[in-house]
């Protein structure tokens, strides 16, 4: 079993990848051996308010058992409580995603404390997006950098009871953050080093790593190939591919697969 914690519906304005339906995305993932996925709306990145994109996501994924909706909340907006309440009430939602750099706020802002409290009230997990695309490949006028490790560390230290999934960390950033904080999980979508297992072992154990593909923006088959790294044991591959994500997203019978 492979569960993808980092894929999307919609289009990216700086990519030639065409928009695809939920069924088309499911087929693309299945061809690469991915069985299920948490899906977020790309449209929420650039829209002034994320709920229209979230509602479109909920409609597109209705009845799609392979997908877990992962909506976006913008805590920098005055209506973040209403956003969160609507997302929490939507069928299948177990977590929400933040885009701090794209939505122009820092993880050190004070309003995030009540936001974290509200997450706990709604029993929702948190996904923080460090980056969507490699800064070296972005459109030249889009001057947005990845979320700084220092900001992530400050947030984690200020909220020690919160254990978010941080997607998009590079192979250097993940160990840097792990050196100062233990209360986070990470995906491997941007950990491209061919010695991935050797570099992360001892700094960020495989019990804290999950598979993420960035589909449909990149080749899913290339991403699943990382699970074949010779330094991973069969048990470590299972944890990264499915078990850790199944526990995070409360997928039934996670311990049996």
SSE blueprint:
Blueprint: E1 3-9, H1 22-31, E2 36-41, H2 43-46, H3 51-61, E3 67-69, H4 80-89, E4 95-98, H5 112-122, E5 125-129, H6 149-158, E6 165-167, H7 173-178, E7 185-187, H8 196-200, E8 209-210, H9 220-224, H10 234-248
Give structural notes:
The protein is of the alpha/beta class and 257 residues long. It has a single domain (3-256), classed as Metal-dependent hydrolases (TIM Barrel). Helix content is 34%, strand content 13%. It contains ten helices and eight strands. The strands form two sheets. The chain has a five-stranded parallel beta sheet with strand order 4-5-6-7-8. The longest helix has 15 residues, at 234-248.
Write out key terms for the chains shown.
257 residues; TIM Barrel
Instruction: Name the overall outline.
Output: globular
User: DSSP helix count?
Assistant: 10
CATH architectural category: Alpha-Beta Barrel
Q: CATH-wise, what's the superfamily?
A: Metal-dependent hydrolases
Low-pLDDT segments, ≥5 res: none
Q: How much beta, percentage-wise?
A: 5-15%
Classify the helix fraction into a percent range.
25-40%
Summarize the structure.
By secondary structure, the chain is an alpha/beta fold. The protein is built from 10 helices and 8 strands.
């Amino acid at each position: 079993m492979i569960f993808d914690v980092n894929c999307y519906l919609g289009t990216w304005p700086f990519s030639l990848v065409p928009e695809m339906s939920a069924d088309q995305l499911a087929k693309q993932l299945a061809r690469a051996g991915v069985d299920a996925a948490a899906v977020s709306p790309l449209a929420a990145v650039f829209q002034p308010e994320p709920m229209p994109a979230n509602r479109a996501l909920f409609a597109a994924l209705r009845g799609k058992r392979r997908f877990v909706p992962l909506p976006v909340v913008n805590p920098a907006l005055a209506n973040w409580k209403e956003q969160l309440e609507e997302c929490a009430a939507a069928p299948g939602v177990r977590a929400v995603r933040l885009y701090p750099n794209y939505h122009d706020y820092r993880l050190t802002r004070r309003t995030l404390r009540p936001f974290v409290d509200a997450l706990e009230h709604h029993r929702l997990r948190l996904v923080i997006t460090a980056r969507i695309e490699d800064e070296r490949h972005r459109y030249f006028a889009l001057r947005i950098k990845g979320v700084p490790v220092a900001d992530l560390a400050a947030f984690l230290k200020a909220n020690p009871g919160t254990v978010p999934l941080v997607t998009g960390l590079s192979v250097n950033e993940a160990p840097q953050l792990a050196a100062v904080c233990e209360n986070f999980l990470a995906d491997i979508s941007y950990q491209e080093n061919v010695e991935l297992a050797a570099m992360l072992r001892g700094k960020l154990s495989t019990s804290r790593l999950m598979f993420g593909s960035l589909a449909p923006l990149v080749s899913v088959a290339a991403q699943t190939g990382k699970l074949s790294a010779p330094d991973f044991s069969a048990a470590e591959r299972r944890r990264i591919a499915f078990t850790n994500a199944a526990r995070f997203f409360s997928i039934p019978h996670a311990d049996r697969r």
